[in-house]
Amino acid sequence: MWVRLQLDFGWNDFAYAMSQVFWNRHESASQAEITSHWPQGQALPVLSVRSGFDLLLGTMKWPAGGEIICSALNIPDMTMVARENGIVPVPADLDAEQLAPRLDLIERAITAKTQAILIAHLYGSFVPLEPILDLARRHGLMVIEDCAENFDGVYQGHPDADVSLFSFGPLKTATSLAGGILKTRDADLFARLVAAQDNWPVQSRWDYFNRLNKYGTMRFFGSKWLYGAVRSGIKMAVGDVDKLIHHTAKSFRPDEIMTRLRQRPCGPLLASMARRFACFDHERIEQRVANGRYLASQLRGRVPCPAADVE
Known about the structure:
Blueprint: H1 11-22, H2 27-36, E1 42-46, H3 49-60, E2 67-71, H4 76-84, E3 88-92, E4 94-95, E5 100-101, H5 103-109, E6 114-120, H6 130-139, E7 142-146, E8 163-167, E9 180-184, H7 187-198, H8 205-221, H9 224-238, H10 241-249, H11 257-261, H12 267-278, H13 282-299
Parallel strand pairs: 2-3, 2-6, 6-7, 7-8
Antiparallel strand pairs: 1-9, 4-5, 8-9
């Protein structure tokens, strides 16, 4: 039996990250290595996309009741973070063929309370941002792009987007099992974000150690030769295997999530992120894209394939 998802994290990556937990490397060196891979604008390593989004909203200090128009499909935590900062998320429905919010619905949703437009690039696709950026500029709105699902080692955010957010959490390409990048083109805003994050506590390296153990265990039991037997055993013991996997993979409990998000990434996590960027395998990404194109071509006409022709 094949596991439904393989972590993009090899045993060499695991061994390196684990070694960093016990080797007291300077955070500043790892941070400098990370930012050297993001030359277009200011890039700030964060604990996660949700942490970066919370940091941005807390720094902007928009009036309570302000609104953010957002892609109608995203993880619930993004809207939760907005509400925690007194901001109302206003969903704009998607064009299923493009996996992009419809421009007419975005424009219709703009009110005097609107502060920003948050666009999520979904499932590895790219939303054409130019029409949205033009609309935002006409109304004086910030454009935030959520690039959690489309990192390919090349794209570093649209040059005209105000803020771009990238994720390297457990389910992402080039994962470090945590971590993210917040990139902004405004130097003044970047300085304010850095100052605000400096007031947050640093993630415990033992927190990262526990995360490595958890996902290392999941990766081991997700091996093809072992997964079928393990899944059968769990099913007999607890019944709903998918529910157990989903619960185990959750990073934070609901009652602790905001406290846990408001932390700076620890040194071992920064070192792991720096290594993943330095060793990024571009050929493997090209092969994944080719595989996806081939699969879509074989499915075409048999089952719906939303966004099959999107970049």
